[in-house]
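Could you help me review a protein record that somebody else here produced? Here is the record exactly as it was handed to me:
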Amino acid sequence: MLQKIKGKLIVSCQAEGDSPFNTPEGVSWFAISAAMGGAAAIRSEGAAKTRKIVASVNLPVIGLKKSLFEDRSVCITGSYEDVWQMVDAGCDMVAIDGTFRIRENVTGPEFIKKVRTIYDIPVMADIATYEQGLACMEAGADCVSTTLSGYTPDASASANSGPDLELVESLSKQLGHRLPVVAEGRYNSPEMARRAMDKGAWAVVVGTAITRPQIITKWFKDAIET
């Protein structure tokens, strides 16, 4: 799977809240459209939605389950039950929170190490810092993604800033010869995605700029009305 996504685009097909696409069928339309546009893989949230996407496109699917830590910050596939749901849904790789925050009484890297002894499925570690990326590599992750940079208390980047290209570059330089580094998080233009590749990214994940029409509409509205 890692060879299939090398140098390619992964589209995160997710919908939340009152979005009209927040159904298994709705996100599958995004996935089908992404496949038509040349995406190499799909990233999907939730068991039912992931199962529908797996059945709808002939592309590798990275599955995850979102929840929250006690501080209300996002957690990616933070329990053994979450992992099992993704495996059962038929995904080709599971994304797991690789930060140092505690879940199942262990840190993210420790959790990934345990998961690898239970399930025979590739793991993408979603991290926020360089140190987390290194720890997840040592724990047996198959690749790391900068997904959580800017979204955790210990991350230097801000969720309101652009993509964390510095993290992509530092991880790629130090770990890239041993572990693929995927760029994800606020890649809202083709130019930014290209910059991530130039910084050494193995692949780039784009979500909001492709699959959140209400947010894209607001970008244009705000620009026009300012």
Remarks:
- The chain has a mean pLDDT of 96.
- The chain has one domain: 2-225.
- The chain has ten helices and ten strands.
- Residues 80 and 205 are 25 Å apart (CA to CA).
